[in-house]
Structures are given as C-alpha cells and as structure tokens.
Amino acid sequence: MNKTLQLLLKRASCRAFTRKRVPAGVVKNILAAGIQAPTGGNLQPYSVIKIERRASIDRLAELCGQSFMKKAPLHFIFCVDFHRLKRWARMESAPFSADRSLRPFWIAFQDTVLCAQNLCTAADAHGLGSVYIGPIFDRIPEIRKMCRLPAGVVPVVSLVVGYPSVQPAPRKRLGAKIVVHNEVYRKITDRELLAGFSEKYKGVRREITKKDLETLYRVCRSVHGEAYAKRSVKAAEKLGYINRAQVYFGLNYQADRMLSNTPKQLKMLSRAGLSCFGPDTKTT
Ligand SMILES: Cc1cc2nc3c(=O)[nH]c(=O)nc-3n(C[C@H](O)[C@H](O)[C@H](O)COP(=O)(O)O)c2cc1C
C-alpha cells in the first residue's frame, strides 16, 4: 500500500513519550508541513505557539489537568489569529471586520485545525507520536496570559508531540457504511445505529457505581426532566453497566454543564477579541 495511506490508516493518539528531544530540523519540517495546509483565501488567519520550556510545559499540563503532557518535549498551541491581519489591513488602509464577523471566524477555525492536522501527519511521518488536547478551551484566559496573546489571537487546540515510548494501536471507528452518505443523507434505522456504536465500543464497559448513577441522574434531570432521568438510571441498572452514550454525555462531557457554560464561554471568546461572539462585551 502507498506509504502515505499506510501512515494515515495506522495513526493513533500517543500519550506515552520518551524524554528524547525532537531535533530542530524535524521541528522545522513539521511546522513547514503545517503551514503548507490549505487556508481560505490563502490568508492564514492562525498562529502556532511552540512550547519547549519545561516550566511552560508543566504549566500547560496543570492547566489541562493531564499529567502525561509533562512527559512530551514539544507542544504546539494552534490559535485563530485576527490580530496580524487586522494590523496589516490598518497599515494598508484596508477595511477590516473579520474579528467581528462570524463567517471569517468559521473559515479561520478550519484553517487553524487544518494546519494542526498537517503538522500532526508530518510528525507521524517522522516517527513521532502526538495527541490533541481539547481542554485548552477551558483555559483560554490563562493561556492567553501565559503566551502573551494579543486580542484576536485565541487558542483552538494544542498538540503534544514526542517520540513514543509505547506504540499506540489504531482505535475503532464507525465505518464508511455509517458515516458516508451517497448524494443524499440516508437516515439509518435505530437498529443499524445501535449496532454501529455497539461494534465500535465492543468490550468497553463502565461498571455501575453509586456516584456515577447519581451524576447520571442529576445531569439527565437537569437537561430532560425527572422522568427521563429515572428512565436513564433504570436502563443502566437493567443492563448492569453504564452504556457509552451515558458515559460520554452524562459523565465525561456532562450535558448540563456544556449547556450552562455556553453563555460564559461566548463572553470569554468575546473578551479574547472575537467580538462576533458577543458584540456588546468589552474586548481586551
Ligand atoms: C479536538 C480534540 C481534542 C482532544 N483532546 C484530548 C485530550 O484532552 N486528552 C487526550 O488524552 N486526548 C484527547 N484527544 C484525543 C482523542 O481522545 C482521540 O483522538 C480519540 O479518542 C480517538 O483515538 P485515536 O486518536 O487514537 O484514534 C483529542 C482529540 C481531538 C481531535
């Protein structure tokens, strides 16, 4: 099989790293590959913060609550960046509203992630391992301060990179039969849908604990009401374990918290200089 395809098909997130540093030439290559990713209008509304200092890595790991991050020698924070374009537009006497408009943000977010994923694949090609870190979203104010990000430069995701100490195995996915639609969206049957997820999460079980059941009940009740909460707990008790959907949306990414945090997150994005998320909020 073609080498690129092989690389893509065997990729998996890596969370265990040796202490070996990534040579400067390799860092340069993977950054160049990231920067060569497609970008709307060839505008590159993103910046990449490279983190190699021990103290900064430790701080990032603490902020994200994931201690394995400390083991990796190289971290990248991918940010939407309207600061640079805004300055350019001002200096060139051009009009500019990208930081206050939704469409440019929509594109910039994609550009930022594409840059990250190109870099990730290039890292794989160099025999490196990597994993994305999503919770930097919860720490945007702290990371902006730590990396001295000006208004309009907002972290989207970070990538932890290093040489794997344990080679990770690819994880199961919902296959093409479920996620690919020919020409028009095909609404699969309930049976197909459940079978797809069961196959994906086969053998993964979360045993019932009193604490988890209480959390599940509380989250369900808050979002869908008492009757739904009772049904949810009963379903888990009948099954003898907490199913994956309940684990994801009831325990790991709690549906009530996701909902209630949204207004303050919009405000936070606006404060970071993306006033399309709350034009009335003062920007810094
Ligand atoms: C946007 C994003 C955020 C992620 N955040 C984390 C994270 O904070 N911690 C972590 O260990 N893995 C994180 N991951 C990795 C996913 O858990 C992983 O991609 C998923 O479980 C599938 O496994 P695989 O990448 O090995 O195929 C993240 C992945 C993405 C794309």
Can you describe this structure in just a few lines?
The chain is an alpha+beta fold and 284 residues long. It has helices at residues 3-9, 24-35, 54-64, 83-91, 102-125, 140-146, 176-179, 190-200, 210-224, 226-239, 244-252, 255-271; strands at 46-51, 74-81, 129-133, 153-162, 206-207, 241-242. Bound molecules: flavin mononucleotide (FMN).
Description of the structure:
With 284 residues, the chain is of the alpha+beta class. The protein folds into three domains: 160 residues, NADH Oxidase; 32 residues, no CATH class; 71 residues, no CATH class. The chain is 49% helix and 12% strand. It is built from twelve helices and six strands. It has a four-stranded antiparallel sheet, sandwiched between helices. The chain has a two-stranded antiparallel sheet with strand order 5-6. Helix 9 runs antiparallel to helix 10 and helix 9 packs across helix 11. The longest helix has 24 residues. The radius of gyration is 22 Å and the shape is globular. The protein starts with a helix and ends in a 13-residue tail after the last helix. The mean pLDDT is 96.
Give the rounded overall mean pLDDT: 96
Q: How many alpha or pi helices?
A: 12
Low-confidence stretches: none
User: Main sheet: which strands, in order across?
Assistant: 1-2-4-3
In the CATH hierarchy, the third-tier topology of the largest domain is known as NADH Oxidase
For CATH, the homologous superfamily of the largest domain is named as: NADH Oxidase
Shape verdict: globular
Radius of gyration: 22 Å
Small molecules bound = flavin mononucleotide
Give the N-to-C terminal Cα separation. Answer: 51 Å
- As a percent range, the share of helical residues equals 40-55%
Number of domains: 3
Largest sheet: 4 strands, antiparallel
What string, H for helix and E for strand, traces the elements in order? HHEHEHHEHEHHEHHEHH
Note the beta-strand portion: 5-15%
